[in-house]
Amino acid sequence: MVCQGIDAPCIDLVANGSRWIIHPLQDTCCLLGTFAQGCGPLKRDWIAANNGTYGGRSAVEGVDADEWVVMGFSENKFWQAASEPLFSPVKMDQGGFVNIYNRNRTFVRNSSFPESMFTVPSTCNINRKCKSQRPCSFRI
Predict the structure, then answer these.
(1) Residue pLDDT, tens place only, 35-50
(2) Is residue 94 part of a domain?
(3) Which of 110, 103, 58 lies closest to 79 in space, CA to CA?
(4) 105 within 8 A of 117, measured Cβ to Cβ
(5) Backbone phi, then psi, for 85, in 5-degree steps?
(6) What is the extent of the structural domain holding 119?
(7) CB atoms closer than 10 angstroms to residue 111
(8) What are the tens digits of pLDDT across the range 101-113?
(9) Is 100 inside a domain boundary?
(10) What predicted TM-score, i.e. pTM, was given to this entire model?
(11) Preceding omega of 135 cis (within 30 degrees of 0)
(12) Contact call for residues 25 and 125 (beta carbons, < 8 A)
């Protein structure tokens, strides 16, 4: 997964009221923003609730994907695998801030997760903000 345009493996962790960007190979972590700043988890129906429109089907990252366009602070584009019945993210572009999902490691299922998946690593510090606070900074 590419987080916030940085081409390195990363984890986008949403836990305890904050969104963290963690680069495990670099042993670094920064605070992207808080839920109050607009960096919380997406609601399940965020596309419908924000009047998203269908953008068509195309090959994205080598996957046959459906595109959805949702206006927010900027134009948000979201692609999900067309052939899979459950929510299966491929790519998300939040006005130029792009996440490409590692489809072999993305966990999005209708089941519960072990609490340990949401443990914020000790390398994370609320005072260490990410170099770019976007897209969270649009609400600050």
Answers:
(1) 888 787 777 788 888 8
(2) yes
(3) 58
(4) no
(5) -70, -30
(6) 11-139
(7) 5
(8) 777 655 555 556 6
(9) yes
(10) 0.64
(11) yes
(12) no
